């Protein structure tokens, strides 16, 4: 909490809000409860400790902090070192020793807020394994194992530099100044801090929805490519025709994206740790799911392709009873004509049966392929993690929470109803 109020006031308010936890406080010999070192300080002390001093330059009058007496005020002290742009140079090592435990910054000026935001964005504390372990052991403070993402909320003109420098700036829509609104990224129209929680929840839900659809879409593409290639090598034509492939990629995938994107956000999204900047869109678990599911679909489709007689006969196609030909009397010329006619009729009959068998065969393959994609949508609903897969069986339940999204079931029924009557029209020799 960065505020212009007095340090005692800021400590009392932050303790009530939970910014300062009970374990962050300690008792002095006189019984007074105060924050532990580096958990609360004034802007002058923070400014003095995190910036480099130019001891060789003449002393100037400026706001300063005396560590021996704890006094803050105008003093004759050395100036700060500045870069080519005139900004104070931050001592990153000193800054990294302060910010992980810092919870309250009182009597701070706009430049103190800007320094805090800039230093946190540059920090690489997560790379100091021993220091991070000490923070966890001594203070129960966890440092995210990636570069920090800094969010700032503010409503005044003095908050504008920090709002602009942060990764995400939240400004108040009612009491906020125009300068703060122009400098921020998101405006809270109701001035309610609880809206930031809803924004985080929906932001994580959108990211997860994109990952779910990528997992589903890539599985379909991997399986379809291999099915088309294998079918073309064996039968000389793809088992999935142009219309069927167009239906899968346009109709089915579009509705699948609606089904997966319509998952409502839950509080479980806030309980997990953030992903971080370096996390890939497709994780290791997603790759295992996609390749494993594609391999399973490929095995099933290959069984249907290579067991054509069993598949066709199992659906009652190609079972035509033979009927004897009775020829009446007549000469040899009449019998010869009947033989030629019967041979032509038998050839047309066999060709018709071959076309019928090929059409039904590939249609069975297509409908089986679609059914497997529909069931794969259930697998894509959950983005599992390695830790949770090892720790709880609940993570393996792909039907978890499906009743909360009736649109998901409606989309599945719609996709199946529209795809069941799309036959593959082929003409086999």
The main sheet comes to:
3 strands, parallel
Instruction: Give the overall silhouette.
Output: elongated
The residue-averaged pLDDT reads 81
Helix content: 40-55%
Distance between the termini: 79 Å
User: How many separate helices?
Assistant: 15
Briefly note the structural class of the backbone.
Answer: mainly alpha
Topology pattern, helix = H, strand = E: HEEEHEEHEHHEHEHEHHHHHHHH
Describe this entry's structure for a reader.
By secondary structure, this protein is mainly alpha-helical. It has 15 helices and nine strands. A hairpin with a 5-residue loop joins β1 and β2. The radius of gyration is 35 Å and the shape is elongated. It starts with 6 loop residues before the first helix and ends in a 10-residue tail after the last helix. The relative contact order is 0.08.
Characteristic key phrases:
single chain; 429 residues; mainly alpha; three-stranded parallel sheet; two-stranded antiparallel sheet; 15 helices; 9 strands; disordered C terminus
What's the short story on this structure?
Helices cover 52% and strands 8% of the residues. It has helices at residues 7-17, 43-50, 92-96, 110-122, 129-139, 160-165, 178-183, 194-235, 242-261, 268-271, 284-306, 308-314, 332-380, 386-391, 406-419; strands at residues 25-27, 33-35, 40-42, 60-65, 72-77, 104-106, 151-154, 168-172, 186-188.
